[in-house]
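Field reference: sequence -> structure
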Amino acid sequence: MQKEIKKYKKGFTLIEALVYLALFGILMGGAIVAAYNIYESGSRISARIIVLEEGNFLLAKINWALSGISAVNFPLVGSTGSKLLVTTVDSAIGSISIESGGTDIVMTQGGVTQTLNNTNVTVDNLLFDYKQNGNVEWITSSFTLNTRTADGKPLSQNFKGTKYLRK
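Structure field:
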C-alpha cells in the first residue's frame, strides 16, 4: 500500500503576488494623488477667501469715506483718477484722501495716514470715476487685488463698487 501524501497549498504564487502588489500600488497612488489635490485646493480656497474678505473690506472703507461728505475735491466731475479726495461734513476730520501707495491703498484722515490692506495682498489699478447726471452724482471705485497661494501660485481678483452721493 502506497502512502498517501497530502499537499497543502500555502502562500501565493508569483503571479498572484504581482497582481496584488500592482493593485495595492494603484490604490496607494490614487490615495496620494487625492490627498495632494485636497491639500492644494484647500490652499487655493484659503487664498481666495483672504482676497474676497480684503476686497470687501476695502470697498466698505471707500463707501464709508464717501458717506457724510460735503464736496468731492478729486477726481473732478466727469473724470477718473487714482486718488480720491473728499471734504467731510465733520469739520474735526476735515478731508479724507484715499490713494495708491505703491502696492497698498492708503487713507489719510485728519493728518494721519494708514494702510488699509493687509500685507498678504497687493493692490493694482486703483481707479475712481466721478460721474454726474442731473442732480445724481456717483463715484465708481475699482481695483485689483493680488496674492499667492501657500504653494506660490498667483491669484488675483478685480473689485468694483459704486456709491451714490448725498450732499
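Note: Helices lie at 14-65.
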